[in-house]
Amino acid sequence: YPNRNNYSETFIYNHHQYLNPRLVLTGGWRPFLLQTHKSIFDFPLSELVRVGVKRGLPFLYDNFYTNYLIKFLKKEKPKVFLAEYGITGVKVLKACKATHTPLVVHFHGF
User: Fold this and answer.
1) What are phi and psi of 28, to 5 degrees?
2) Could you write out the DSSP letters of every residue in the chain?
3) Which residue, of 34, 59, 88, 98, has the greatest Cβ tally within 10 A?
């Protein structure tokens, strides 16, 4: 889920339940957390650095995020990336293009 405890995101719960994905990323518009609570940012103090870049250097965060998502997608080689919101689709598009990962964007209004 982009927002794990949001009651209005039952369609995401249903996708997770019935599509039975091998990988699930959560964490908002730019998903970065696996179900195991591991991050795609795989270095020491990564959460501290991620939040620091996001808050202190927001103009760099898109490229920072995309770089690590590309590394993650190259390593995991998913068959397809399902983005549950239009904004998420936009945020992951560059990484999906760079890794030739098909992207499906699904959303119910906004």
Assistant:
1) 105, -155
2) --STT-TT-HHHHHHHHHH--S--EESSSS--EETTS-BS--STTHHHHHHHHHHH-HHHHHHHHHHHHHHHHHHH--S-EEESSHHHHHHHHHHHHHHT--EEE-----
3) 88
The pTM (predicted TM-score) of the whole model is 0.87
Percentage of the chain exceeding pLDDT 70: 91
Cα distance between residue 86 and residue 52, in whole Å: 25
Q: Do residues 90 and 33 lie in contact, with contact meaning Cβ atoms separated by under 8 Å?
A: no
Write down the residue that tokens 């103009």 correspond to. Answer: 59
Residues 6+ apart with CB under 8 A from 34: 23, 24, 25, 40
Cβ atoms 81, 96 nearer than 8 A: yes
Predicted confidence (pLDDT) per residue in 68-109, tens digit? 999 999 999 999 999 988 999 999 999 999 999 999 998 776
